[in-house]
Write a structure and sequence with these properties.
Order of helices and strands of chain A: HEHEHEEEHEEHHEHEHEHEEEHEEEHHH
Distance between the termini of chain B: 41 Å
Number of helices of chain A: 13
CATH class of chain B: Mainly Alpha
Number of domains of chain B: 1
Number of helices of chain B: 10
Radius of gyration of chain A: 23 Å
Structural class of chain B: mainly alpha
Distance between the termini of chain A: 72 Å
CATH topology of chain B: MetI-like fold
Oligomer: heterodimer
Strand order of the largest sheet of chain B: 1-2
Strand content of chain B: under 5%
Strand content of chain A: 15-25%
Number of strands of chain B: 2
Helix content of chain B: 55-70%
Number of strands of chain A: 16
């Protein structure tokens, strides 16, 4: 029995040491700027404290990156972001449980179930609530067709594909916009988001805005076209990767990670490839829909601007213009300033977002300065 | 000392050391321990019953306002639009998908599970039965999300040719007709993955029950000239039937409520798809529909509609368990 007891002790020791190796500092700063607290100038006016925020999952990767770079410069501050969904984020913000909310659509100004979101927020804050656009996430039309490296699509063709009207890859309407490419005759397999999603809402807004004759359904978080539903962007992107002839709409980073082909969109001014600059051009054409420092944007999905990629999603941070707690308000201001800074916005490009164009960024900076 | 009439002199005589009559000597009767344990057991039982009742009350309380505003027939409508002033939602599609997925899972898991349990207890040599039992129990330790990802990425592509064969050869049967859904995301496939998840539950409980079969019954059957299979059929299985039914009910509960694996694997259908009885179709179960939309419950009406769907699942599980209880009670006559 001595051998058994020795073996028992030895296995407990091995398991214990393996478990203890899991304890370690969680160093997930990909930028490598974390070398020993070498914070530039602002360490003296860095507020301390904890911020809690909740909301859209579309901006989760972007805000994680912004949080880690903010926490590098201001080591006394902690920011927590919980990607529970835009609806949940706004609900928690109105209930006073979080300091700001992330949402893929601005606070609604129309009545829903007897309440107007923007008015409720103003009531809660005691001052108007501002929607500050911080993250632009382009939506890629991703496909997986063997032998087709470049695919050009117009809004009408996209609408007909996702409507189920165009069913094979060598359909004449696709061939017309892709002269010279050999398209196979296999069926098109459409995948859509089975969960309610801001990506679906923005994609359907694009289809309705750019091809209203072909896409007649109202835009919304729930899918109204045809196809098979998969859960979350990871699910649709994975499904397209494993299905020959698959097509879907997903955030740019998912299309890139799964090595899917990304279609070039021809909105009327020639095929436009999806890059940071083309997205920025499209966001710059957006009209400001709010007053003063409430920077809600009305994206022009039918834009005929040359070199502008039109299918984009903008996520907003929703804050009280006059913060309820002065210390928290200072922290919110500092974090948002860091988030909107040119350096942070540039670093978002590697993870599949596009930096805010300069025109929008200066307006956002001005609004952040006006926060109190 | 008691007499025939029940009256005795000892009732009036004082006890030793001058204590009062019939007072006893204060030794412990064990009543305190009895009361404590009985009380704790009763308390635990009441707590569990209370919890289940509270869950039922919560579901009803959240669901009834939404149900009252439903314009469509809740039990027979296929629509699901829960926003706005005139919500129209019904659960017949969810009910069909949930029931078929669970039925396929149980049809596979129960026979296989019972067979494995019989193998472990009756046929296997003793050096094999314990490792085999641990291995089956290991299947229960795998988290549901791992089953979902495994089913989606690894097992799905393996199943696609099987589905192609079924559609091609047996497509004339309505159950296998082509519904345009890709291979590793159909009701049939999810049923198979669920069967693997439910298998360890059925096996573990059946194994325990079969091990309890009275040795005298088994030896009697063998002595009367039965072969091994006949002995199992006449002595072990009838004895274990209530246990098998209990095990299946627990497994069915898991299959009906399984959320994450179904959400990941099963393809959802767009609005307005044709109704089909095909097993090679996509869809949503109660649990996966709630999971897909839980992040966007922005109004009480919307949450209430989904909770009403959860309530139907609760009632369905309750009814199935009640039927199982009735069946078990009627079989009680066979137990020793």
């Amino acid at each position: 029995m001595k051998i058994q007891r020795l073996g028992l002790l030895a296995s407990v020791a091995v398991v214990g040491s393996i478990a203890l190796t899991a304890c370690g500092s969680d160093n997930n700063n990909g930028t490598g700027a974390s070398a020993g607290g070498s914070s530039s100038s602002s360490s003296s006016d860095c507020p301390t404290g904890t911020l809690n925020a909740e909301g859209s999952s579309a901006q989760k990767n972007a805000i994680d990156e912004a949080i880690s770079s903010f926490q590098d410069t201001c080591s006394g501050a902690t920011v927590n972001y919980n990607p529970t969904g835009s609806g949940a984020g706004i609900k928690q913000f109105l209930a006073g449980q979080v300091d700001f909310a992330g949402s893929d659509s601005a606070l609604k100004t129309t009545e829903k179930d007897g309440k107007v979101e923007a008015d409720e927020a103003a009531k809660y804050c005691g001052s108007p609530a501002w929607n500050l656009p911080m993250v632009t996430g382009p939506i890629a039309v991703a496909y997986h067709v063997k032998g087709v490296d470049k695919l050009v699509l117009t809004p009408e063709v996209i609408a007909n594909i996702f409507n189920g009207k165009v069913t094979t890859w060598n359909d004449p309407s696709i061939a017309k916009v892709n002269s010279g490419a050999t398209l196979p005759s296999e069926p098109i397999k459409v995948f859509f988001r089975s969960d309610e999603s801001g990506t679906t809402e923005n994609f359907t807004k694009y289809l309705k805005g750019a091809a209203p004759a072909a896409w007649t359904a109202e835009p919304g978080k729930a899918w109204t076209g045809k196809g098979e539903g998969k859960e979350k962007s990871a699910g649709v992107a994975g499904a397209v990767q494993s299905t020959e002839g698959g097509i879907t709409y997903a955030e740019w980073s998912y299309a890139k990670d799964n090595k899917l082909g990304i279609a070039q969109i021809d909105n009327g001014a020639g095929p436009v490839e999806l890059t940071g600059e083309t997205v920025g051009k499209a966001i710059a054409t957006a009209k400001a829909d709010g007053q003063g420092n409430d920077l809600r944007l009305k994206l022009d999905y039918a834009t005929k601007e040359a070199g502008a990629y039109p299918i984009n999603l903008v996520t907003y941070e929703i804050v009280c213009s006059k913060g309820k707690d002065p210390a928290k308000a200072k922290l919110v201001k500092a974090f948002l300033k860091s988030f909107a800074s040119e350096q942070t916005q540039k670093s978002l490009e590697e993870i599949g977002y596009a930096p805010l164009p300069d025109e929008v960024r200066t307006k956002v900076d001005a609004a952040i300065d006006a926060l109190s | 000392m008691s007499s025939v009439t029940g009256v005795s002199l000892a009732d009036e005589t004082p006890g030793p050391h001058g204590s009062a009559p019939l007072s006893g000597d204060g030794a412990g009767t064990g009543r305190l321990g009895d009361r404590l344990f009985g009380g704790a057991a009763k308390g635990a039982g009441l707590l569990v019953i209370g919890l289940v009742t509270l869950v039922g009350v919560f579901l009803l309380w959240q669901a009834i306002p939404a149900l009252a505003r439903d314009d469509a027939n809740f039990l027979t409508s296929r629509e699901w639009s829960v926003d706005g002033a005139h919500p129209r939602f019904g659960i017949v599609e969810l009910l069909w998908t949930t029931v078929t997925v669970s039925a396929i899972a149980m049809l596979i898991a129960v026979p296989v599970g019972v067979a494995v349990a019989l193998f472990i207890t009756q046929y296997a040599p003793s050096w094999l039965s314990r490792p085999a039992a641990s291995l089956i129990d290991l299947l229960a330790a795998v988290p549901s999300i791992v089953y979902g990802i495994w089913g989606l990425r690894t097992f799905g592509p393996v199943f696609e040719p099987v589905q192609g064969f079924l559609q091609h050869r047996l497509g004339w049967i309505p159950l296998f007709s082509n519904a345009g859904i890709s291979g590793g995301s159909t009701i049939l496939f999810v049923g198979i993955v669920l069967a693997i998840m439910v298998l360890p539950i059925v096996t573990a409980l059946s194994r325990e029950v079969f091990a309890q079969t009275p040795l005298t019954h088994k030896e009697g059957a063998l002595a009367l000239g039965a072969t091994r299979w006949e002995m199992i059929r006449t002595a072990v299985l009838p004895f274990g039937k209530p246990g098998i039914i209990s095990a299946s009910m627990l497994g069915l509960g898991r299959a009906l409520g399984e959320t994450i694996a179904v959400t990941i694997i099963l393809s959802t259908l767009p609005d307005g798809s044709k109704w089909t009885f095909s097993l090679l179709n996509g869809g949503e179960t109660f649990a996966s529909r709630i999971a897909n939309n839980a992040a966007e419950f922005d109004t009480p009406q919307k949450a209430g509609a989904f909770i009403a769907a959860g309530l139907v699942l609760f009632v369905l599980t309750f009814v199935v368990n009640a039927i199982a209880r009735v069946v078990i009670e009627r079989r009680k006559a066979f137990s020793e």
